[in-house]
Amino acid sequence: xxxKNLYRPNVAMIIVSNNYPQKIELxxxxxxxxxxxxxxxxxxxxxxxxxxxxxFRELEExxxxxxxxxxxxxxxxxxxxxxxEIAKQMKPxxxxxxxxxxxxxxxxxxxxxxxxxxxxxxxxFVSIEDVLNQSAHFxxxxxxxxIKYFKKKGLL
Length: 156
Hints:
Shape: globular
Order of helices and strands: EEEEHEEHEEHH
Helix content: 25-40%
């Protein structure tokens, strides 16, 4: 397996509430399998699947709706390594390479994390500072980079 293949292709979503842009509130969800671990929705890109197809499929699978509008996307793929205990579960992958999107929840959207295969136990909308304070340590550098980029672009 080449070094490139050691990272699982993935889409990740920074979701702002339908109060955007008047109020900046970011969606975070608590993982089912790790208490007090909060993150942005994300998920793998299936073989042969286009990035935006994976994006909307993962939204349906994780938050029960795809009623979101793409505001922007981060211009590059970003990667992170799994901590050792997670890497053991995710073999053969050592981490993930992700494409980040900034999305706005449509007014008609109803979030339902009680999906067919729930990944989250709860969710909330929080400030940017709260995202960085509550995110998993190994994801925090990527979150900081993406948030900084969208802030610089005047989107957050």
